[in-house]
Amino acid sequence: MAIQPIRLFGDPVLRTAAEPVQVFDKELRTLVKDLAETMLDAPGAGLAAPQIGVSLRVFTYHVDGVLGHLVNPVLDLSDEQQDGDEGCLSLPGLTFDCRRALRVVAKGQNEFGDPVVVEGSDLLARCVQHETDHLDGVLFVDRLDREQRKLALRAIREAEWAGAAPVVKASPHATFGAAR
């Protein structure tokens, strides 16, 4: 297990749709552990594989004392909505009011390929939607209303970390997802 550098806004991997996981092996289990360790160290409520430079459909979450992960998620969202502050480890220090579905049922797999269903509302629903967006190359600022998005983009331009060269090291998962 190792804490990985988190990619920041502007890194192309954050805008690229991740590939489905097809191989459930030791490498995947190591990736899940690295995601969890990096997320808890940050600290954050969730972290998706693209945020550490791995373009695979995997994320971890830590909400209400529950640590979990989901591979290849597919979401069923409630029609009822919630508004609330949302932030992102790839946009450090910034939070904005973002509308999300109030409840989610997420179907996917665990690190061994077994079927998993994650159901939740409020913060868990927000987190699952946020991390699944990362897997689709979508950032939460893309979901803001027009006025909030303008404020967010201004704050990003003015952020201390904006325009900095990304901190990237060779990921032990660099070959992950490649055809084998």
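the 2nd protein, sequnce then structure:
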Amino acid sequence: MKSPIGRFISYLFLVIVSFISVFPFYWMFVLSTRSNADAFKFPPILTPGNQFFTNLQTAWERSDFLTATVNTLIITGTVTVSQLFFCSLAAFALARLTFKGRKFLLLFIIITLTLPGIGQIPLYMIISKLNWINDLRAVIVPALVSAFGVFLIKQYIDASVHPELIESAKVDGARNFQTYYKIVLPIIKPGLATLAIITFMGTWNAFIWESIVLRDESVRTIQLAIRNLQGTYTRETAIVVTGAFVATLPLLAIFIPFSRQFIAGLAEGSVKG
């Protein structure tokens, strides 16, 4: 057992780390409740003010946050659900099925993880030929499946789903999709939760590709709406931070309820992997 001093040091360390982790969100909230002049005061003001709804109204009038939020929810929800299905299905095939070219496909997926984003130019040419510029499909379709998601779930299946289970299912007459649906999916739920949170947060915060193909205000995402809040000649930090704070709330609403599954997925993968 740890000594009282050791426990005190451990708790003190956890408190400090927790404070460092939470403080940026608190500071974002404080700035969103203050005027633009207060954002540049030194020493900084650490207590909330009464300007939040004023800043929110200004942000709402300057950039259509409702449309941007709906667009982002459509993109994020579709991409997340699609990746959970296609990545887990492909990972199951690569991890537990035997077919010609399996090793080559796995090697190809690993190689794509090491490449930078050099595919945006040919991808843009394809999207342009399809007349998908200023269309949500330009963002959704290329992200329906990801090499990272396939590799992550494949590693999780390797660690969690024993080959004997698959063989037993085959002996009982189960088809491959039945085995995937009834045996594999219930076992890899923590891994799917991990992929869901990573995909949701990454898609919600995506900016570069969206700024290239989504130019009209009617198809803007939340990150493009935040960029539009910045003044042309002045730095309106309070308004921009208010928009960023509002955009962060859905991420917290998703992460907090599923944080246990997320941590369980990471912990189980690290122990078994």
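Residues 269-273 have pLDDT under 50 and may be disordered. The two ends are 29 Å apart (CA to CA).
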